[in-house]
Design brief:
Chain A has about 140 residues and is mostly helical. Chain A has 4 helices and 2 strands, in the order H-H-H-E-E-H. Chain A has one domain: Bromodomain-like (Up-down Bundle), CATH 1.20.1550. Chain A has a two-stranded antiparallel ribbon. The two termini of chain A are about 15 Å apart. Chain B has about 220 residues and is α+β, with helices and mostly antiparallel strands. Chain B has 2 domains: about 40 residues; about 170 residues, Glutaredoxin (3-Layer(aba) Sandwich), CATH 3.40.30. The termini of chain B are far apart. Classes of the chains: A mainly alpha (about 140), B alpha+beta (about 220).
């Protein structure tokens, strides 16, 4: 019983951190898209698809201190991380835009995809997914030990 | 128990911050739109702009319209209703915001019809038949010519007029004014120079009524 309580407490911190990052990223993406009217490009949409469910999965996992939520959240986080990395490479011109699936609408390599004038949105996304993956990995280790 | 409260409180805090952000952003956008308008009041209505309703009406609705925009099509009956039921107190001025692919061709057709005095028939028909010509993945504005054939328009004459430099100039001026006035979505409304910030039929009606009341009181 005692061990279980300890385990739950240990689990809470990194899980809460991962959830909070997902929550802020979701709110931020919705603000940029719906309020500021920046049309998300295709790659942004794929990252949204990975990020938005994390709020609910990790949120429910957090409410019940359910370590299994990590198992469901990690594939989403890794998928989002991969797309964010690819998007960053497109943004910095390492991968040419011609190879990206961006058709009409906004371009994924557009210089306008920056917050506060200098932070590229794909980089922000990559940082968020990296932090989520790291925190989930930490939480997973704590569940095991 | 504490943990649950922390989760709910955090979620609530983020929601509150989001709503506050929306209000701050809207307020700033409104200020910017007002400033843009004050500095460029001539850009709102040009002498070439089509007018629906009593030209001497005290309240003017300026609508930036994209002929291919579905919301513009859905809004037109509402705007027309406001003008028709206003006892000649409200008029509509149409400005063009050809934001969709193919919209520029549609605008040229409308302007060509205007030269023959068939503007509003063709305008209404063009909006009503959007489903047939204005699919966004494959717009076919040339189809409009067939769709408006029974309005009595001299199509051959209109086709020649549609490519005239005068009409091109109208379109270019409207697009420039659209950018100046920071209209980036259609339909974009101004009522007596006040931009409609929160979009909606009820909001538009309220703004028009407010301006009618202002016009009545000395």
């Amino acid at each position: 019983m005692n061990i279980e309580v300890l385990e739950r407490q240990a689990l809470s911190m990194p899980l809460f951190g991962a959830w909070l990052i997902a929550l802020l990223a979701t709110a931020g993406a919705l603000f940029l898209g719906e309020v500021m009217g920046m049309t998300p490009c295709v790659l942004c949409w794929y990252q949204r698809i990975a990020m938005f469910p994390l709020v609910l999965i990790l949120g429910v996992g957090l409410l019940d201190a359910d370590g299994r939520s990590i198992r469901y959240a990690l594939p989403l986080a890794w998928a989002g991380w991969g797309i964010a990395l690819y998007h960053c490479l497109v943004f910095w011109g390492v991968v040419s835009e011609g190879l990206t699936p961006c058709g009409k609408g906004s371009s994924c390599a557009d210089a306008e995809t920056q917050v506060a004038g200098f932070v590229p949105i794909p980089l922000l996304s990559l940082v968020a997914f990296t932090a989520i993956v790291a925190l989930l990995w930490l939480a997973k280790r704590k569940v095991k030990t | 128990m504490n943990r649950k409260w922390l989760v709910f409180a955090t979620a609530a805090a983020v929601v509150v911050a989001f709503v506050a952000g929306v209000m701050i952003f809207r307020d700033r956008a409104q200020q910017e739109a007002k400033q843009a308008l004050q500095m460029n009041s001539a850009a709102l209505v040009r002498p070439h702009s089509p007018v629906y309703g009593n030209p001497a009406a005290k309240v003017t609705i300026v609508e930036f319209v994209d002929p291919a925009c579905e919301t513009c099509g859905a809004f037109y009956p509402i705007v027309k209703g406001i003008v028709n039921s206003s006892f000649s107190q409200v008029k509509l001025v149409v400005r063009y915001a050809a934001l969709h692919k193919g919209s520029d061709t549609a605008v040229k057709i409308l302007e060509a019809a205007r030269q023959q005095g068939k503007y509003w028939e063709v305008f209404e028909r063009t909006l009503a038949t959007q489903a047939q010509w204005a699919a966004h993945h494959n717009p076919q504005p040339e189809l409009i010519w067939q769709l408006i054939a029974d309005t009595g328009l001299d199509v051959a004459k209109a086709r020649a007029a549609a490519d005239s430099p005068e009409i091109e100039q109208v379109l270019r001026q409207d697009m420039a004014d659209m950018k100046t006035l920071k209209v980036d979505k259609t339909p974009g409304f101004f009522v007596n120079g006040t931009p409609l910030v929160e979009f909606g039929a009820a909001q538009l009606k309220a703004l028009v009524e407010q301006e009618i009341r202002k016009a009545k009181s000395p």
